[in-house]
C-alpha cells in the first residue's frame, strides 16, 4: 500500500514538469504560428507559410 | 526534470530552427517570393503565353503600383525580413522541441529510452503529425492562394495535429491489440470530416509554382524535424545518463 502510494506520488511529481514544458512549448507556438495580431503575423509570415500553419 | 527537458529542447530547437531557416532560404523562400509577385500582380500567370491578358488589363495600374511599393519595401529591408524568419524558425522549433522532449520524458516514465537515433523516429513522427497530416487537408499555401476563414482552418489544423499525435502514440505504445486500430481511426477522423475549403479555385500563381512550394515545404520540414529529433534525443540521453 505504501509502495503504491509512493509510486503514484512519484508519477504525479514527474508529470508536472512534463506538462509544464509542453505548455511552454505550446505557448511559444501560439505566438509564432497562431496569433493574428499584425505584428506577430508580419514577423512570422514567411515561417508560417513554410511550415504550413494556416496564415491568413 | 523540467531543466533537463528545457536544456535538450533549447539546444535541439535552436539547431533545428537554424537548419530549417537555411533550407528554407535555399529552397522555399525563392518560390515564396515569386508567389508574392503573382499575389501583388507584378507578374501574371499567363503573361508569357496569352496576349489577351494585356488587352483585358490584367495586372491593373493600381496593382502594379502596389507591387512596386512592395518591392521597394522588400528591397529596403530583405535582411530584416529574412532575419525575422530565421528567429521565428528558432522559436517555433524550440516550441516543437519542448513538446517533443516532454514526450521523451513521458515515455521514460513508462520505461522507454530515447537516443539520438530513435530521436530521429520521434522527429519524423512529429513531422507526420505537424506538417504531413494537416497538409493532406490544408495544403501549404503559396502567398496569394485564397483559402477559407483562417480561424476555421486553425481549428481544423489543431484538431488534426492532436488526433495524429494521439493516434501515432496509440500505434507506437498501445499494448492492447485494439489500440493501434483506434490510432488509425483517430488519424483518419479529421480527414473524414474534411478541412474547410472555398468553393472553386481562384489561385493567381501557376500550378507548377504552387506544387513546387508544397513539395519543398514538406521536404524541408521533414529534414528539420529529423534534425530536431536527433539532437533532442542526443541531449536527452546524455541528461538521463548524467
UniProtKB/TrEMBL annotation, chain A:
Origin: domain of life: Bacteria
InterPro entries: CbtB_put
Segments traversing the membrane: 15-35
Annotated keywords: Membrane, Transmembrane, Transmembrane helix
Pfam families per UniProt: CbtB (PF09489)
Protein name from the UniProt record: Putative cobalt transporter subunit (CbtB)
From TrEMBL, chain B:
Flavoprotein among keywords: no
UniProt cross-references to InterPro entries, sorted A to Z: CbtA_put
Record NCBIfam families: CbtA
Classification via Pfam families: CbtA (PF09490)
Key words, A-Z: Membrane, Transmembrane, Transmembrane helix
Region Disordered: start-end pairs: 60-79
Keyword check for Membrane: yes
Amino acid composition bias (Acidic residues), ranges on this chain: 63-75
Name this protein carries in UniProt: Putative cobalt transporter subunit (CbtA)
Residues annotated as transmembrane: 86-107, 119-139, 154-173, 178-198, 210-236
Amino acid at each position: 500500500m505504501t509502495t503504491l502510494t509512493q509510486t503514484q506520488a512519484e508519477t504525479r511529481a514527474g508529470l508536472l514538469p512534463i506538462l509544464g514544458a509542453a505548455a511552454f512549448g505550446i505557448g511559444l507556438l501560439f505566438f509564432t504560428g497562431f496569433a493574428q495580431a499584425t505584428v506577430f503575423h508580419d514577423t512570422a509570415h514567411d515561417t508560417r507559410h513554410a511550415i504550413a500553419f494556416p496564415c491568413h | 526534470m523540467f531543466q533537463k527537458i528545457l536544456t535538450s529542447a533549447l539546444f535541439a530547437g535552436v539547431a533545428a530552427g537554424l537548419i530549417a531557416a537555411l533550407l528554407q532560404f535555399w529552397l522555399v523562400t525563392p518560390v515564396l517570393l515569386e508567389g508574392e509577385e503573382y499575389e501583388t500582380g507584378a507578374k501574371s500567370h499567363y503573361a508569357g503565353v496569352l496576349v489577351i491578358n494585356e488587352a483585358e488589363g490584367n495586372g491593373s495600374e493600381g496593382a502594379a503600383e502596389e507591387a512596386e511599393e512592395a518591392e521597394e519595401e522588400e528591397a529596403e529591408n530583405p535582411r530584416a525580413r529574412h532575419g525575422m524568419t530565421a528567429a521565428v524558425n528558432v522559436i517555433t522549433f524550440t516550441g516543437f522541441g519542448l513538446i517533443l522532449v516532454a514526450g521523451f520524458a513521458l515515455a521514460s516514465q513508462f520505461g522507454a529510452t530515447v537516443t539520438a537515433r530513435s530521436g530521429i523516429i520521434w522527429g519524423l513522427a512529429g513531422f507526420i503529425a505537424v506538417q504531413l497530416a494537416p497538409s493532406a487537408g490544408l495544403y501549404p499555401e503559396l502567398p496569394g492562394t485564397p483559402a477559407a476563414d483562417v480561424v476555421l482552418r486553425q481549428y481544423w489544423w489543431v484538431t488534426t495535429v492532436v488526433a495524429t499525435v494521439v493516434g501515432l502514440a496509440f500505434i507506437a505504445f498501445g499494448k492492447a491489440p485494439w489500440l493501434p486500430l483506434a490510432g488509425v481511426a483517430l488519424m483518419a477522423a479529421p480527414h473524414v470530416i474534411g478541412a474547410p475549403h472555398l468553393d472553386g479555385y481562384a489561385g493567381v500563381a501557376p500550378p507548377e509554382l504552387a506544387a513546387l512550394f508544397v513539395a519543398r515545404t514538406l521536404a524541408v520540414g521533414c529534414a528539420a524535424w529529423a534534425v530536431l529529433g536527433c539532437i533532442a534525443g542526443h541531449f536527452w540521453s546524455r541528461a538521463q545518463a548524467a
